[in-house]
């Protein structure tokens, strides 16, 4: 290990762990809190999609706090939460995995909701949609709990037999059996890549593809109808023509919010894959590289691991900025929220002097 620490790759890896977790924690917390507040505003909270994204902001916040705080304490204080007690070993792992997986599947559910609203919009009503959204979030929570319950059966107190033939505790957060160790080293990497990355990403891409196709068809149909109406109206009364054209323009612009929201979800989907895929590859290669005896290669691996992990946590940090860049309605509601806050602060300053 001493030889490994002398390589610049290992030094860079340590600096990455020291710099990025606190930065992500600050930026991600502020961004996710703002997202939650925007989604809970009067103009947004009646929408099923806003409920999903508010829940996503919560799971993202939990993920960065539970995940990054461990690394911060380890780097700055040399304190590993996982090894502090059996409760922290199981609790930290389960809560972190739950938050990470729930975030991924909430994105799938919100994309599915947009798919249904575009394909069969007239068969839905708002109350039913909100009820379905709440039920969907409960299903995601139950499914994710079951999906990550393996933590409680595979990790815990690990014992070994010493030279005297007695059991000795070797790790507070180890493997409870040889089968558990085999599961974590051989099966879990593929399990995680399927349920955390590839499954959600493929679902989002397929659903968004159908949404985009349907929106193009609807837009083309409405534009054709608008052109036909415009030609016909030239031979009729101008007042009637203007009224009809305004009505038709309104129907043409109706899907604009859906298009904007779909573009936003597409960006979130691609960023999700780009930022989470490296950590999955790292997980698949971890066992092989961990056996490497060459100190330089171990230093390189330490650098790769640090980059992969900070990219993964970046996915749960930047969603607010993606919404700002690609979501018109989100930007509008955010500006209104700050405007209302400014008015409230102005009134608070004036009232004491009255």
Automatic annotation (TrEMBL):
Alphabetic keyword roster: G-protein coupled receptor, Membrane, Receptor, Transducer, Transmembrane, Transmembrane helix
Domain G-protein coupled receptors family 1 profile, first and last residues per copy: 31-323
Highest taxon listed in the record's lineage: Eukaryota
Major subcellular location class: membrane
Keyword Transcription attributed: no
Entry's transmembrane regions: 20-39, 51-73, 93-112, 133-153, 190-212, 259-279, 299-325
Protein's cellular compartments: Membrane
GO MF term (any one): G protein-coupled receptor activity
GO-annotated cellular components: membrane
Family under the similarity heading: Belongs to the G-protein coupled receptor 1 family.
Protein name, UniProt field: Neuromedin-U receptor 2
Biological source species: Lingula anatina (Brachiopod)
Name of the encoding gene: LOC106180929
